[in-house]
Amino acid sequence: MTRTWTRPIRIALALVAALAAATVVACGSDDDSSSGGGGGGEKLSLVAYSTPQEAYEEIIPAFEKTADGKGVTFNQSYAASGEQSRAVEGGLPADIVAFSLAPDVDRLVDAGLVAEDWANTQNDGFVTNSVVVFVVRKGNPENIETWDDLTKDGVEVITPNPYTSGGAKWNIMAAWGAQLEQGKSEDEAKDYLSTLFDHVPVLDKSAREALQTFAGGKGDVLISYENEAITAQQKGEDVDYVIPDETLLIQNPAAVTTDAPATAQKFLDFLHGDEAQKIYQSKGYRTVNPDLADDAKFPVPPKLFEITKFGGWDKVNADFFDPEGAIVTDIFQDQGKSTASG
Predict the structure, then answer these.
(1) Domain ranges in the chain?
(2) CATH superfamily of 9-128+252-292
(3) Rounded to whole angstroms, how far apart are CA atoms 339 and 162?
(4) What is the pLDDT of residues 230-272, one digit of tens each?
(5) Which of 45, 162, 190, 272 could form a disulfide bond with 168, CB atoms 3.0-4.6 angstroms apart?
(6) Rounded to whole angstroms, how far apart are CA atoms 209 and 203?
(7) What is the distance between the alpha carbons of residues 56 and 248, in angstroms, rounded to a whole number?
(8) More confident residue, 187 or 17
């Protein structure tokens, strides 16, 4: 049963890095507003994907109040996950990276910027969980309840571009997996994706930009992270959200870079701790700590599956998103949609 919840390269890369750096939110520097860490101490750079900004705006001051965080200040940068990963690879300074999906961290492993064993840590390197949901207009006027409802005549679907956004990849794999969970073949699942993207009029760079497009009045339904739906509600947007019966568990990683100071690891450890996990939860994320799980606020969908269902991200990226030819690449090229990564 579905439920509706009302609450709750190098020049090119350098250019991307510059663009990402232009969006930096600086906290606690000598000539910027302080987030409470005090002056004269260590400064860390956090480079993150777009959606957890509200969480980090509370987590960072909480860390700065601890003994490990005393005197520490932060520079913060938020944008699409893939874009941020490529920006760090291209030179954007980072001590801690927090991305939508693990391959965006692994890109930095290949570049020698993150240790190969980054995931051999607490919670396999993940700091938050979520699920893919349907964000709908208040009252759900189009009666969107199932994946099939997204492809009804006249329904306009908003989702970001998977060649820049990690969230978009989660959305697509949720749609694909839902078809398989319903007993459909892979050919039928591919047909479904093709039909689904016929209903997508615009492809934003990030999940947050897609939310802004939807909040601005475009589209009947937004495929997104559950936490984005909750963030929209907390900001007063007139939206509800539906958790489909068949959906995908989202797992978001964080890691320190190889040249980061020891304090960066202390901050990463803090992200796994109860205080930060409770802040993540208050912003709509599902905790990675089973002891803090809230099944009333975050019910487990009846047919929840993981990315391992499809062989993991290396196989998924090769089979679905390889720009030289893959399932989604072929669909986008047939429909004239962009497969550019920047």
Answers:
(1) 9-128+252-292, 130-249+300-335
(2) Periplasmic binding protein-like II (3.40.190.10)
(3) 8
(4) 999 999 999 999 999 999 999 999 999 999 999 999 999 999 9
(5) 162
(6) 9
(7) 24
(8) 187
> What fold is seen in the domain 130-249+300-335?
D-Maltodextrin-Binding Protein; domain 2 (3.40.190)
Its pTM stands at: 0.86
Instruction: Give me the count of residues in the chain.
Output: 342
* Alpha-carbon span 206 to 7, nearest angstrom: 23
pLDDT, tens digit, 9 for 90 and up, residues 305-331: 999 999 999 999 999 999 999 999 999
